Amino acid sequence: MNNFFQENIFAIILFLLLIILLLIALIGVIVVKLLLAPKEVAQPKAAAPAVSPTITPEVVIPNFKKLSEEKVAEKYYCENHPDIPSVGTCLICEDVFCEQCLIEHDGLYFCKEHFKIFANNKWKQITDVKTTPDTPEEGLYIYNFKRHLWNDRKVPSFVLTHYKINIEEDFIESFIQLNVVVDAAVELAEDLEKFKVRH
Ligand SMILES: [Zn+2]
Ligand SMILES: [Zn+2]
To answer: What is the whole-number distance in angstroms between the Cα of residue 37 and the centre of ligand 1?
Structure first.
């Protein structure tokens, strides 16, 4: 054993030196890799925000909603308060009003003035005209008659729309229902028929 060691001493030393050099080279590579590592990590970090905008359309949608709300608000201000955006329409005069000027009753909205007319009268429905997506203009004369009554004769009335889903044909039917004060119902129903012929 001792003999073998003496005969091969140089080879063994050379072998050990080679291993040490390899180890130094290996450590060197590891150190260089570690030093370069932050740059390699920074790349995926930079790539991450590039991916995230595609996952955040939520940010875009509220912006769009905000814009459309502003557009509506700019367009319609309360009839009584020129600086307050309106929230709805009075069924009788069809003007737009803010929250504090509108009165809600059973899902129907009126301005304060015309809620009194609504509450102090009995009403009768004088039309139930069906319109479909193919015939949307079918009930138009009723709206025109309602406006004629209010604008030209100061006669109050209001239009309700009743929706019904036609399951067989898969479309929505709407029924245009004109309501007038009971005492005037017969006369106004006749006027409406004449109005329909002329328009
Ligand atoms: Zn009104
Ligand atoms: Zn108002």
So the answer is: 72
Interval 129-147: pLDDT, tens: 999 988 889 999 999 999 9
The answer to whether 80 touches 57, Cβ cutoff 8 Å, is no
Alpha carbon of 78 to ligand 2 centroid (Å): 5
- The H or E element that residue 28 is part of is helix 9-55
Q: How far is the CA of 147 from the centre of ligand 2 (A)?
A: 22
Using 50 as the pLDDT threshold, list the residues of the chain that sit under it: 39-74
Ranges of H-type helices in 56-109: 57-75
Of 47, 51, 144, nearest in space to 94 by CA: 144
* Residues with Cβ within 8 Å of residue 77, at least 6 apart in sequence: 83, 84, 85, 86, 96, 98
Model pLDDT, residue 70: 47
